[in-house]
Amino acid sequence: MAGPLKTTSEKSKLNISNKKFAIVVAEWNEEITEALFQGAHEALLQLGAKKSNLIRVNVPGSYELPLAAQRMAKQKDIAAVICLGCVIQGETPHFDYICNSVANGIMRVNLDTGKPVAFGVLTTLDKKQALERAGGKYGNKGEEAAVTVVGMLEA
Ligand code: RBF
């Protein structure tokens, strides 16, 4: 299946034991975003991060992820940020506005701060598709987001 080239089971060349990571988690669709958080947290530990260096920040919804990510990425001691959210399509165009804003906002934080900021945001048609990507048959996109930022620290 397509995904980041490295997995948590592959040894990373980089020692990340002294690197600090921020994990920003949206509370909307909490059941899904908690599973994404568990995936990201576990992956960082497996890649060699110290638990005390993993800083969790909660925000109300995915729309708030870019601002919280920016605040964290601006802190000198933070090496990378992982944004986790889940936007499920409703009956109004809100879905498109939220998804576009979040994707653009997170990219902006990447480029403005020069630090890796992962887009671990599910944008799905329904809850079933979200569950499949939060520890279900398509893996855990939180875990992939964590592997991705570590990959970018090495790139
Ligand atoms: N936030 C999410 O993270 N996922 C969603 O599926 C989601 N759906 C929303 C649908 C509507 C109609 C509105 C108004 C907000 C929704 N939000 C969702 C919350 C959004 O990310 C943000 O927290 C609020 O718009 C306040 O800025």
Secondary structure layout plus pairing:
Elements (H helix, E strand, L loop, with lengths): L19 E7 L3 H17 L7 E6 L5 H9 L4 E11 L5 H20 L3 E8 L2 H6 L1 E3 L2 E2 H14 L1
Parallel strand pairs: 1-2, 1-3, 3-4
Antiparallel strand pairs: 5-6
The chain binds riboflavin.
Q: Would you identify the regions where 5 or more consecutive residues have pLDDT less than 50?
A: none
Q: Can you name the CATH architecture of the domain at 38-98 and 114-154?
A: 3-Layer(aba) Sandwich
Q: What value does the Rg take, in angstroms?
A: 14 Å
Structural shape: globular
CATH domain topology of the domain at 38-98 and 114-154: Rossmann fold
Average of pLDDT: 94
In whole angstroms, the N-to-C terminal distance is 22 Å
Counting H and I runs of at least 4 residues, what is the number of helices?
5
Element order: H for helix, E for strand? EHEHEHEHEEH
Q: In the CATH hierarchy, what is the class of the domain at 38-98 and 114-154?
A: Alpha Beta
Give a count of the beta strands, DSSP E runs of length 2 or more. 6
Helix content: 40-55%
Strand content: 15-25%
Strands ordered across the widest β-sheet = 2-1-3-4
CATH level-4 homologous superfamily of the domain at 38-98 and 114-154: Lumazine/riboflavin synthase
Present as ligands are:
riboflavin
- Helix-strand makeup class: alpha/beta
